[in-house]
Amino acid sequence: MKFIDEYRDGDAARKIARAIHGSITKPWVIMEICGGQTHSIVKFGIDQLLPENVTLVHGPGCPVCVTPLEMIEKAIEIASRREVIFCSFGDMLRVPGSSSDLLSVKASGGDVRVVYSPLDAVRIAEENPRREVVFFAVGFETTAPANAMAALYAARKKLSNFSLLVSQVLVPPAIEAILAAPENTVRGFLAAGHVCSVMGYEQYEPIAARHHVPIVVTGFEPVDILQGIYMCVRQLEEGRAEVENQYTRSVRREGNLSALDLIREVFRVTPRKWRGIGEIPQSGFGLAEKYAAFDAELRFGLADRATDEPEECISGQILRGIRKPNECPAFGVRCVPEFPLGAPMVSSEGACAAYYRYRTSTVCAANTTIY
Questions:
Q1: The pTM of the whole model exceeds 0.85
Q2: Domain segments of the chain: what residues?
Q3: Around Cβ 370, how many Cβ atoms within 10 Å?
Q4: Which residues contact 77 (CB under 8 A, 6 or more apart)?
Q5: Which fold has domain 1-309?
Protein backbone atom coordinates (compact mmCIF):
# COMPACT_ATOMS: atom_id res chain seq x y z
CA MET A 1 0.00 0.00 0.00
CA LYS A 2 1.60 3.28 -1.11
CA PHE A 3 -0.80 5.77 0.47
CA ILE A 4 -2.87 5.43 3.61
CA ASP A 5 -5.12 8.44 3.07
CA GLU A 6 -7.68 6.56 1.00
CA TYR A 7 -8.29 4.15 3.88
CA ARG A 8 -8.90 7.04 6.28
CA ASP A 9 -11.07 9.10 3.94
CA GLY A 10 -13.98 10.59 5.90
CA ASP A 11 -16.36 10.75 2.95
CA ALA A 12 -15.75 7.11 2.09
CA ALA A 13 -16.23 6.09 5.72
CA ARG A 14 -19.53 7.99 6.01
CA LYS A 15 -20.76 6.45 2.76
CA ILE A 16 -20.16 2.93 4.07
CA ALA A 17 -21.73 3.86 7.42
CA ARG A 18 -24.87 5.02 5.59
CA ALA A 19 -24.95 1.72 3.70
CA ILE A 20 -24.78 -0.16 7.01
CA HIS A 21 -27.66 1.93 8.39
CA GLY A 22 -29.68 1.13 5.28
CA SER A 23 -29.06 -2.61 5.58
CA ILE A 24 -30.03 -3.22 9.19
CA THR A 25 -33.40 -4.69 10.18
CA LYS A 26 -32.36 -6.68 13.29
CA PRO A 27 -29.90 -6.28 16.18
CA TRP A 28 -26.53 -7.95 15.64
CA VAL A 29 -23.43 -8.45 17.80
CA ILE A 30 -20.15 -8.55 15.86
CA MET A 31 -16.75 -9.27 17.38
CA GLU A 32 -13.50 -7.91 16.01
CA ILE A 33 -10.78 -10.39 16.90
CA CYS A 34 -7.71 -8.18 16.60
CA GLY A 35 -6.56 -5.68 19.21
CA GLY A 36 -5.21 -3.46 16.45
CA GLN A 37 -8.71 -3.28 15.02
CA THR A 38 -10.06 -2.47 18.50
CA HIS A 39 -7.71 0.51 18.77
CA SER A 40 -8.78 1.81 15.35
CA ILE A 41 -12.46 1.40 16.26
CA VAL A 42 -12.08 3.34 19.51
CA LYS A 43 -9.60 5.92 18.20
CA PHE A 44 -11.63 6.86 15.12
CA GLY A 45 -15.05 6.42 16.72
CA ILE A 46 -16.10 3.76 14.23
CA ASP A 47 -18.57 2.21 16.66
CA GLN A 48 -20.23 5.61 17.05
CA LEU A 49 -20.98 5.73 13.32
CA LEU A 50 -22.97 2.51 13.47
CA PRO A 51 -26.71 2.00 14.05
CA GLU A 52 -27.69 1.39 17.68
CA ASN A 53 -28.63 -2.19 16.91
CA VAL A 54 -25.12 -3.07 15.68
CA THR A 55 -22.94 -3.81 18.71
CA LEU A 56 -19.18 -4.30 18.41
CA VAL A 57 -17.50 -6.37 21.11
CA HIS A 58 -13.78 -6.86 21.52
CA GLY A 59 -12.20 -10.29 21.20
CA PRO A 60 -9.05 -12.04 22.44
CA GLY A 61 -6.84 -10.68 19.67
CA CYS A 62 -4.16 -9.01 21.78
CA PRO A 63 -1.21 -11.42 22.11
CA VAL A 64 0.18 -9.64 25.16
CA CYS A 65 -3.23 -9.71 26.85
CA VAL A 66 -3.81 -13.44 26.45
CA THR A 67 -0.35 -14.51 27.63
CA PRO A 68 -1.21 -16.34 30.87
CA LEU A 69 -0.05 -15.11 34.25
CA GLU A 70 1.98 -18.25 34.85
CA MET A 71 4.00 -17.55 31.69
CA ILE A 72 4.74 -14.03 32.95
CA GLU A 73 5.88 -15.57 36.25
CA LYS A 74 8.18 -17.95 34.37
CA ALA A 75 9.60 -15.04 32.36
CA ILE A 76 10.27 -13.07 35.55
CA GLU A 77 11.99 -16.04 37.20
CA ILE A 78 14.21 -16.70 34.19
CA ALA A 79 15.06 -13.02 33.68
CA SER A 80 16.06 -12.70 37.35
CA ARG A 81 18.91 -15.20 36.94
CA ARG A 82 22.33 -13.60 36.75
CA GLU A 83 23.54 -15.81 33.90
CA VAL A 84 20.58 -14.89 31.67
CA ILE A 85 20.09 -12.21 29.03
CA PHE A 86 16.33 -12.03 28.62
CA CYS A 87 15.07 -10.59 25.32
CA SER A 88 11.52 -9.48 24.66
CA PHE A 89 9.30 -7.13 22.71
CA GLY A 90 8.70 -3.95 24.70
CA ASP A 91 5.00 -4.48 25.48
CA MET A 92 5.76 -7.52 27.63
CA LEU A 93 7.96 -5.66 30.10
CA ARG A 94 5.08 -3.97 31.94
CA VAL A 95 2.62 -6.86 31.97
CA PRO A 96 1.96 -7.52 35.67
CA GLY A 97 2.83 -10.81 37.26
CA SER A 98 1.64 -11.75 40.74
CA SER A 99 3.87 -9.19 42.44
CA SER A 100 6.30 -7.83 39.85
CA ASP A 101 6.99 -7.40 36.14
CA LEU A 102 9.94 -7.66 33.76
CA LEU A 103 10.59 -3.92 33.92
CA SER A 104 11.09 -4.23 37.70
CA VAL A 105 13.53 -7.07 37.10
CA LYS A 106 15.47 -4.81 34.72
CA ALA A 107 15.41 -1.96 37.24
CA SER A 108 16.81 -4.33 39.88
CA GLY A 109 19.79 -5.19 37.70
CA GLY A 110 18.49 -8.02 35.55
CA ASP A 111 19.77 -8.07 31.98
CA VAL A 112 16.43 -7.58 30.24
CA ARG A 113 16.67 -6.23 26.69
CA VAL A 114 14.01 -4.94 24.31
CA VAL A 115 14.51 -6.30 20.79
CA TYR A 116 12.60 -5.70 17.57
CA SER A 117 13.05 -9.18 16.11
CA PRO A 118 13.72 -12.64 17.54
CA LEU A 119 16.73 -12.75 15.23
CA ASP A 120 18.21 -9.93 17.34
CA ALA A 121 18.17 -12.39 20.25
CA VAL A 122 19.97 -15.00 18.14
CA ARG A 123 22.67 -12.44 17.36
CA ILE A 124 23.00 -11.57 21.06
CA ALA A 125 23.47 -15.27 21.83
CA GLU A 126 26.26 -15.45 19.27
CA GLU A 127 27.95 -12.42 20.81
CA ASN A 128 27.63 -13.75 24.38
CA PRO A 129 28.54 -17.46 24.27
CA ARG A 130 28.97 -17.67 28.06
CA ARG A 131 25.50 -16.30 28.84
CA GLU A 132 22.10 -17.94 28.48
CA VAL A 133 19.98 -15.91 26.05
CA VAL A 134 16.21 -16.36 26.18
CA PHE A 135 13.67 -14.81 23.81
CA PHE A 136 10.06 -14.41 24.95
CA ALA A 137 8.23 -15.80 21.91
CA VAL A 138 4.66 -14.55 22.29
CA GLY A 139 2.00 -13.79 19.74
CA PHE A 140 -0.59 -15.16 17.38
CA GLU A 141 0.15 -16.80 14.04
CA THR A 142 1.54 -13.47 12.84
CA THR A 143 4.75 -13.77 14.87
CA ALA A 144 5.14 -17.52 14.46
CA PRO A 145 7.27 -17.45 11.25
CA ALA A 146 9.87 -15.09 12.72
CA ASN A 147 9.98 -17.03 16.00
CA ALA A 148 10.35 -20.26 14.02
CA MET A 149 13.17 -18.68 12.03
CA ALA A 150 15.00 -17.86 15.27
CA ALA A 151 14.91 -21.53 16.35
CA LEU A 152 15.97 -22.63 12.87
CA TYR A 153 18.93 -20.24 12.77
CA ALA A 154 19.99 -21.18 16.31
CA ALA A 155 19.98 -24.84 15.30
CA ARG A 156 22.01 -24.17 12.16
CA LYS A 157 24.53 -22.12 14.14
CA LYS A 158 24.64 -24.82 16.86
CA LEU A 159 23.94 -22.26 19.60
CA SER A 160 23.71 -24.14 22.88
CA ASN A 161 23.05 -20.95 24.88
CA PHE A 162 19.86 -19.84 23.10
CA SER A 163 16.28 -20.77 23.97
CA LEU A 164 12.68 -19.62 23.45
CA LEU A 165 10.03 -19.14 26.12
CA VAL A 166 7.10 -19.95 23.85
CA SER A 167 3.58 -18.60 24.32
CA GLN A 168 2.21 -18.77 20.76
CA VAL A 169 -1.57 -18.93 20.40
CA LEU A 170 -3.96 -19.62 17.52
CA VAL A 171 -7.10 -17.70 16.55
CA PRO A 172 -9.50 -20.38 15.19
CA PRO A 173 -9.71 -22.43 18.43
CA ALA A 174 -10.40 -19.21 20.35
CA ILE A 175 -13.31 -18.43 18.02
CA GLU A 176 -14.64 -21.94 18.60
CA ALA A 177 -14.35 -21.48 22.38
CA ILE A 178 -16.24 -18.16 22.24
CA LEU A 179 -19.02 -19.66 20.13
CA ALA A 180 -19.32 -22.70 22.40
CA ALA A 181 -19.68 -20.64 25.59
CA PRO A 182 -23.25 -20.62 27.01
CA GLU A 183 -23.19 -16.83 27.46
CA ASN A 184 -22.14 -16.14 23.86
CA THR A 185 -24.10 -13.50 21.92
CA VAL A 186 -21.67 -12.99 19.01
CA ARG A 187 -23.25 -13.54 15.59
CA GLY A 188 -20.40 -12.54 13.28
CA PHE A 189 -16.64 -11.99 13.31
CA LEU A 190 -14.08 -9.66 11.80
CA ALA A 191 -10.97 -11.81 11.40
CA ALA A 192 -7.50 -10.29 11.71
CA GLY A 193 -5.97 -9.49 8.34
CA HIS A 194 -2.35 -9.88 9.44
CA VAL A 195 -2.99 -13.36 10.89
CA CYS A 196 -4.69 -14.41 7.66
CA SER A 197 -1.86 -12.97 5.57
CA VAL A 198 0.27 -15.72 7.11
CA MET A 199 -2.21 -18.55 7.61
CA GLY A 200 -4.81 -17.86 4.93
CA TYR A 201 -8.49 -18.32 5.77
CA GLU A 202 -9.35 -21.86 4.71
CA GLN A 203 -9.36 -22.94 8.38
CA TYR A 204 -12.18 -20.47 9.13
CA GLU A 205 -14.53 -21.99 6.58
CA PRO A 206 -15.51 -25.08 8.66
CA ILE A 207 -16.13 -22.81 11.68
CA ALA A 208 -18.44 -20.54 9.68
CA ALA A 209 -20.36 -23.55 8.33
CA ARG A 210 -20.53 -25.45 11.63
CA HIS A 211 -21.73 -22.50 13.74
CA HIS A 212 -23.53 -20.63 10.96
CA VAL A 213 -21.62 -17.39 11.57
CA PRO A 214 -20.16 -15.05 8.94
CA ILE A 215 -16.43 -14.37 9.23
CA VAL A 216 -14.96 -11.45 7.28
CA VAL A 217 -11.18 -11.09 6.98
CA THR A 218 -10.64 -7.38 7.59
CA GLY A 219 -7.85 -4.80 7.55
CA PHE A 220 -7.05 -2.22 10.21
CA GLU A 221 -7.86 1.24 8.86
CA PRO A 222 -11.29 2.90 9.34
CA VAL A 223 -12.52 2.24 5.79
CA ASP A 224 -11.31 -1.37 6.02
CA ILE A 225 -13.16 -1.98 9.26
CA LEU A 226 -16.38 -0.29 8.15
CA GLN A 227 -16.33 -2.26 4.91
CA GLY A 228 -15.77 -5.45 6.89
CA ILE A 229 -18.72 -4.63 9.15
CA TYR A 230 -20.89 -3.92 6.12
CA MET A 231 -19.96 -7.25 4.53
CA CYS A 232 -20.70 -9.04 7.80
CA VAL A 233 -24.05 -7.26 8.28
CA ARG A 234 -25.13 -8.10 4.74
CA GLN A 235 -24.44 -11.78 5.36
CA LEU A 236 -26.36 -11.70 8.63
CA GLU A 237 -29.35 -9.95 7.07
CA GLU A 238 -29.37 -12.38 4.13
CA GLY A 239 -28.99 -15.45 6.33
CA ARG A 240 -25.60 -16.37 4.90
CA ALA A 241 -22.63 -17.71 6.88
CA GLU A 242 -19.52 -17.56 4.73
CA VAL A 243 -15.89 -16.49 4.95
CA GLU A 244 -15.29 -13.35 2.92
CA ASN A 245 -12.06 -11.45 2.35
CA GLN A 246 -12.20 -7.66 2.64
CA TYR A 247 -8.41 -7.41 2.93
CA THR A 248 -7.68 -8.59 -0.59
CA ARG A 249 -4.64 -6.35 -0.97
CA SER A 250 -2.76 -8.49 1.58
CA VAL A 251 -4.54 -11.81 2.11
CA ARG A 252 -4.85 -14.91 -0.05
CA ARG A 253 -7.05 -17.88 0.81
CA GLU A 254 -4.07 -20.24 1.03
CA GLY A 255 -1.91 -17.82 3.03
CA ASN A 256 1.87 -17.49 2.79
CA LEU A 257 3.04 -20.97 1.82
CA SER A 258 6.71 -20.36 2.65
CA ALA A 259 5.80 -19.10 6.12
CA LEU A 260 3.50 -22.07 6.67
CA ASP A 261 6.28 -24.51 5.73
CA LEU A 262 8.58 -22.82 8.25
CA ILE A 263 5.97 -22.99 11.01
CA ARG A 264 5.32 -26.69 10.36
CA GLU A 265 9.05 -27.39 10.48
CA VAL A 266 9.65 -25.82 13.90
CA PHE A 267 6.32 -25.95 15.78
CA ARG A 268 3.64 -28.46 16.73
CA VAL A 269 0.06 -27.69 17.74
CA THR A 270 -0.53 -27.96 21.51
CA PRO A 271 -3.12 -27.01 24.13
CA ARG A 272 -2.57 -23.48 25.49
CA LYS A 273 -3.76 -21.62 28.54
CA TRP A 274 -5.10 -18.11 27.82
CA ARG A 275 -5.01 -15.36 30.43
CA GLY A 276 -8.44 -14.87 31.98
CA ILE A 277 -9.95 -17.61 29.80
CA GLY A 278 -8.24 -20.87 30.74
CA GLU A 279 -6.95 -23.72 28.63
CA ILE A 280 -8.26 -24.07 25.08
CA PRO A 281 -7.47 -27.39 23.37
CA GLN A 282 -5.10 -27.28 20.39
CA SER A 283 -4.93 -23.50 20.58
CA GLY A 284 -1.20 -22.88 20.50
CA PHE A 285 2.18 -23.73 19.11
CA GLY A 286 4.97 -25.44 21.02
CA LEU A 287 8.39 -26.38 19.79
CA ALA A 288 8.53 -29.63 17.84
CA GLU A 289 10.57 -32.48 19.32
CA LYS A 290 13.37 -31.74 16.86
CA TYR A 291 13.78 -28.29 18.46
CA ALA A 292 13.04 -29.23 22.09
CA ALA A 293 16.62 -28.30 23.08
CA PHE A 294 15.61 -24.65 22.55
CA ASP A 295 12.61 -24.83 24.92
CA ALA A 296 13.32 -22.46 27.84
CA GLU A 297 10.62 -24.02 30.03
CA LEU A 298 12.41 -27.37 29.85
CA ARG A 299 15.89 -25.86 30.08
CA PHE A 300 15.07 -23.99 33.30
CA GLY A 301 12.77 -26.64 34.81
CA LEU A 302 9.60 -24.53 34.75
CA ALA A 303 7.26 -26.57 32.55
CA ASP A 304 4.85 -27.57 35.34
CA ARG A 305 4.40 -24.18 37.07
CA ALA A 306 0.86 -22.83 37.45
CA THR A 307 -0.43 -19.53 38.88
CA ASP A 308 -3.93 -18.35 39.79
CA GLU A 309 -5.33 -15.27 38.06
CA PRO A 310 -6.25 -12.21 40.19
CA GLU A 311 -9.97 -12.04 40.97
CA GLU A 312 -10.41 -8.27 40.59
CA CYS A 313 -9.29 -8.11 36.95
CA ILE A 314 -12.11 -8.94 34.53
CA SER A 315 -9.81 -9.21 31.51
CA GLY A 316 -11.12 -12.69 30.74
CA GLN A 317 -14.66 -11.36 30.34
CA ILE A 318 -13.39 -8.49 28.19
CA LEU A 319 -11.38 -10.86 25.98
CA ARG A 320 -14.46 -13.06 25.48
CA GLY A 321 -16.62 -10.09 24.51
CA ILE A 322 -18.89 -10.46 27.56
CA ARG A 323 -18.04 -7.06 29.04
CA LYS A 324 -16.31 -3.89 27.88
CA PRO A 325 -13.53 -2.00 29.69
CA ASN A 326 -15.90 0.78 30.76
CA GLU A 327 -17.97 -1.83 32.61
CA CYS A 328 -15.10 -2.71 34.95
CA PRO A 329 -15.35 -0.99 38.39
CA ALA A 330 -11.54 -0.81 38.59
CA PHE A 331 -11.10 0.89 35.21
CA GLY A 332 -9.44 4.30 35.54
CA VAL A 333 -9.51 4.02 39.33
CA ARG A 334 -7.51 1.05 40.62
CA CYS A 335 -6.39 0.02 37.14
CA VAL A 336 -4.47 2.63 35.12
CA PRO A 337 -1.51 2.30 32.72
CA GLU A 338 0.98 3.20 35.46
CA PHE A 339 -0.47 0.57 37.85
CA PRO A 340 -2.32 -2.01 35.73
CA LEU A 341 -4.27 -4.90 37.18
CA GLY A 342 -4.09 -6.81 33.91
CA ALA A 343 -2.40 -6.94 30.53
CA PRO A 344 -5.23 -5.27 28.51
CA MET A 345 -4.36 -1.97 30.23
CA VAL A 346 -0.68 -2.27 29.25
CA SER A 347 -0.52 -3.57 25.71
CA SER A 348 -0.60 -1.29 22.69
CA GLU A 349 -3.34 -3.63 21.39
CA GLY A 350 -5.24 -3.99 24.68
CA ALA A 351 -8.91 -2.96 24.77
CA CYS A 352 -8.53 -1.34 28.20
CA ALA A 353 -5.56 0.69 26.98
CA ALA A 354 -7.60 1.86 23.97
CA TYR A 355 -10.52 2.97 26.12
CA TYR A 356 -8.21 4.68 28.62
CA ARG A 357 -6.32 6.54 25.91
CA TYR A 358 -9.25 7.66 23.80
CA ARG A 359 -12.30 7.63 26.08
CA THR A 360 -11.01 8.11 29.61
CA SER A 361 -12.96 11.26 30.45
CA THR A 362 -16.43 9.77 29.95
CA VAL A 363 -15.60 6.40 31.48
CA CYS A 364 -13.85 7.75 34.56
CA ALA A 365 -16.69 10.18 35.19
CA ALA A 366 -18.95 7.17 35.63
CA ASN A 367 -16.55 5.38 37.98
CA THR A 368 -15.10 8.14 40.14
CA THR A 369 -15.16 11.84 40.87
CA ILE A 370 -11.36 12.09 40.81
CA TYR A 371 -11.14 12.80 37.06
A1: yes
A2: 1-309, 315-367
A3: 8
A4: 300, 302
A5: Rossmann fold (3.40.50)
